[in-house]
Amino acid sequence: LYNKPGRGCKSKFNTEQKEKIREFVKPEPRQLKQVVQKVKEELGIISSKKTIQRILKILKMSWHRMRRGRGGEPLTHIYQEKRHN
After folding, report:
1. Which domain does 51 fall in, by range?
2. Is residue 38 pLDDT above 80, yes or no?
3. CB-hemisphere CA count at 13 Å for 58?
């Protein structure tokens, strides 16, 4: 019942290919569909967007949009009016 090493699916990409994917993602981290196409063309491996996301997570990269700033506080008189209604 103990987990043994080597269980589960083997990785589609080796470390060299993962570094290549990192280079594909660096210019536009949010355009993962384009990265999937590039991987298919250059490496000849069909993969999903989710697989690319998993690889980026392993490589400690992010594909999420960064927020520009926090929203801030509402104007007090407008907040009070809406709160009393």
Report:
1. 11-64
2. yes
3. 14
